[in-house]
UniProtKB/TrEMBL annotation, chain A:
Residues 4-234 form the ABC transporter domain. InterPro entries: AAA+_ATPase, ABC_transporter-like_ATP-bd, ABC_transpr_MalK/UgpC-like, Mo/tungstate-bd_C_term_dom, NA-bd_OB-fold, P-loop_NTPase, Transp-assoc_OB_typ2. This is ABC transporter ATP-binding protein. Belongs to the ABC transporter superfamily. SUPFAM superfamilies: MOP-like (SSF50331), P-loop containing nucleoside triphosphate hydrolases (SSF52540). PROSITE patterns: ABC_TRANSPORTER_2. Pfam families: ABC_tran, TOBE_2. One of its GO terms (molecular function) is ATP binding. Keywords: ATP-binding, Nucleotide-binding, Transport.
From TrEMBL, chain B:
Pfam families: BPD_transp_1. The chain crosses the membrane at residues 32-54, 92-115, 127-148, 179-205, 226-247, 284-305. The keyword Cell membrane applies. It comes from Kaistia terrae. Keywords: Cell membrane, Membrane, Transmembrane, Transmembrane helix, Transport. This is Carbohydrate ABC transporter permease.
Length: 363, 319
């Protein structure tokens, strides 16, 4: 149960800057996901929290205590590795008892703790098995149990589901979230899979190229992306973005999208914000799920290039210079080559400054 | 780290039934490799049978008859019973064991220490690595001549001891029965620690880094990591390294023969040197065949034992 604060954290490897001044507070008992594509600095951040790497600048504080110079064995950090790093030459019991044993706890204390944690994680029947031949979900439980038995202040999980096949991942996600709720521990979870982050995390920190892009609850990040990167990265498929210029029409401020036509007028809040921002070149954004398709001539005009029918929903790919996707719940009667009209839900339209890529927000 | 190492449960055992097509292709494979198999059998099997045959006779090349006529001097198992009472043989065997009991542990501990040091980075690591491996590359006969010169009473070894102690030390290393044995051991340790080092280092480098980090995060200090993670995980490799060296010590010859010729007297006479002398000086080849066969069987038993240990370690816990 610990609050983690990162203050102006920087990490450089020679000339390469892996992390550029990161500030982040991870609250007590929170499940925080560090999300980003590979090479975004999320693993580096986690390794610095664990003490495997020293920061090039800035501080890491656990409950206000500066962790600089504290060796990783003394930080009270539980770490679940990508491949679980189970000691395969030992039995399940020896794995669980490893931490307490190394810390010189008494025989009876070790037995008591192993018994408790094994009961809790339903590992009791497996205690005397060699850990080399266990299945993946048991390995995950064992990895968590082995860290949890020494009662760490925080838990760090480094993409623990990336080696698991897709079908099993859903099971493992549920189990992991369930365990976190029971442990009530501060957890930091590194992943490049937005689905994992969205489903499990209390808050998500989206990172790219060593820069923290946005921190917020999964829905905040999904609904109000702070910039173009987050808008594209979150969501499957990501947000549609069309380059355009602000234009005054007789029904209010709208965006001239070139060959797409002119967008429906912006909501009052967004129009006010766009006027205040002053820049004319913008990216017009809307979620594929937040638009309707029709054939009448009142929305954005585009030509259908592909129709993906997944069963529960249909993804229509349309193009007019730039490509756009629209997700509908029902099958649609369009086929390749048809001209369609796309009408984004007014409240779901987002604008981004074309130059700075930052979101233009109303209110 | 491979996926199978990481996720052992994922690899399910395949059912062991052989479909007919497979059996057919197996038969073809057997026919195709038959000539080679016969050749190997001839190379390995024929000399062995010949050796067994001669070992049951008193045949010597001085007899003037071909070895296939050795039955003329058939003596049943007299060579083997003679061996039991041959004091020079038992002495040679004993000395070989002494050399083994000193050299193999010394080489092992030195190599393990060095390999552990080489796990970390330090300036000049690559240069030291090359220097360390050099003794292994030296032709054993050349190494023998080097040490022969180093251990002369007016040689560099005594020179260094003199410089260190400030006294004029003139120890006759190679003509003192005990010191000659020590000198031979020093030469063997010098030449073969690198091999052990190389094998153990390969093993240590293969220990997954994540496991060491996990152990550190769980509070293990360096010593605990070494004994609970690193050593158990290189168990198999340790057995291989030890087995190789034990078997090679049984065959120790070139270096030793050039340094001392087995002397003074028989003070450094090992079984290889003994066999060599019986072969070239006494010329009783029936007896030689018997000795060699006994050693072959002993070493085979040792090799099988080592392989069993390796199998067990592999099945037990991917050591």
């Amino acid at each position: 149960m610990t609050t983690i604060r990162l203050e102006n954290l920087v990490k450089r490897f020679g000339d390469f800057t892996a992390l550029k001044t990161m500030d982040l507070e991870i609250r007590d008992g929170e499940f925080m996901a560090l999300l980003g594509p590979s090479g975004c600095g999320k693993s580096t951040t986690m390794n610095m929290i664990a003490g495997m790497e020293d920061p090039s600048g800035g501080r890491i504080l656990f409950d206000g205590r500066d962790m600089n110079g504290v060796p990783m064995g003394k930080r009270g950090v539980g770490f679940v590795f990508q491949n679980y790093a189970i000691f395969t030459h030992m039995t399940v019991r020896q794995n669980l008892a490893y931490g307490p044993k190394m810390r010189g706890m008494s025989r009876s204390e070790i037995d008591r703790r192993v018994k408790n944690i094994a009961d809790f994680l339903q590992l009791t029947p497996l205690l005397d098995q060699k850990s080399a031949k266990l299945s993946v979900n048991i390995l995950q439980r064992l990895a968590i149990g082995r860290s949890a038995i020494v009662e760490p202040a925080i838990f760090l999980l480094d993409e623990p589901l990336s080696n698991v096949d897709a079908a099993f991942r859903a099971v493992m996600r549920t189990e992991l979230k369930h365990l976190q709720k029971q442990f009530k521990q501060t957890m930091v979870y590194v992943t490049h899979d937005q689905l994992e982050a969205m489903t499990m995390a209390d808050r998500i920190a989206v990172m790219d190229h060593g820069v923290l892009q946005q921190v917020g609850t999964p829905l905040e990040v999904y609904n109000n992306p702070a910039n173009i990167f987050v808008a594209k990265f979150i969501g499957a498929p990501g947000m549609n973005l069309i380059a355009g210029e602000l234009a005054e029409t007789d029904r209010g401020l709208a965006v001239d999208l070139g060959s797409w036509g002119v967008s429906p007028p912006l909501s009052d809040d967004l129009a006010a914000a766009a006027r205040a921002a002053g820049s004319r070149a913008v990216q017009y954004g809307f979620r594929p799920e937040e638009a309707t398709l029709g054939s009448e001539r009142k929305g954005l005009r585009a030509r259908v290039t592909f129709v993906e029918r997944i069963g529960a929903r249909t993804i229509v790919h349309a193009e007019s210079g730039q490509a756009v996707k629209v997700v509908t719940e029902n099958d649609v009667g369009f086929s390749i080559g048809d001209v369609v009209s796309i009408v984004p839900t007014p409240a779901a339209v987002r604008l981004f400054d074309a130059a700075s890529t930052a979101a233009i927000r109303g209110g | 780290m491979s996926a199978t190492e990481t996720l052992p449960g994922a690899a399910a055992a395949a059912p062991r039934t052989i479909p007919p097509v497979d059996r057919e292709s197996r038969r073809l494979g057997f026919r195709l490799t038959l000539p080679t198999q016969l050749l190997v059998l001839f190379i390995a099997g024929f000399p062995l049978l010949m050796q067994l045959y001669i070992s049951l006779t008193d045949w010597s090349p001085l007899d003037g008859v071909g070895w296939w006529k050795a039955w003329e001097s058939w003596n049943s198992f007299a060579n083997y019973t003679d061996l039991l009472e041959d004091r020079r043989w038992w002495g040679a065997l004993w000395r070989t064991f002494i050399i083994m009991l000193v050299c193999v542990p010394a080489e092992f501990l030195l190599a393990l220490g060095l390999a552990t040091l080489f796990m970390d980075d330090f300036p000049g690591k690559r240069i030291f690595y090359s220097i360390l491996l050099m003794p292994m590359m030296v032709v054993p006969a050349v190494a023998g001549y080097m040490f022969f010169m180093l251990f002369q009473s007016g040689g560099p070894f005594n020179g260094i001891l003199s410089a260190l102690t400030g006294m004029d030390i003139r120890i006759a290393w190679l003509s003192d029965p005990t010191l000659a044995l020590v000198a031979v051991m020093i030469a063997d340790i010098w030449q073969w620690t690198p091999l052990m080092f190389l094998i153990l280092l390969a093993g240590l480098v293969g220990v997954p880094e994540d496991q060491l980090k996990a152990a550190t995060l769980l509070g293990a200090n360096w010593r605990q990591r070494f004994f609970t993670i690193m050593l158990p995980r290189i168990k198999t490799i340790m057995v291989i390294a030890l087995a190789i060296r034990v078997i090679e010590i049984f065959k120790i010859f070139d270096t030793l023969y050039i340094m001392t010729g087995g002397g003074p007297g028989v003070a450094t006479e090992t079984i290889s040197v003994y066999i060599y002398k019986v072969t070239t000086q006494d010329l009783i080849w029936g007896y030689v065949a018997a000795i060699a066969l006994v050693i072959l069987i002993a070493l085979s038993v040792l090799a099988v034992f080592a392989m069993k240990r390796m199998e067990a370690a592999k099945n037990g816990g991917r050591a």
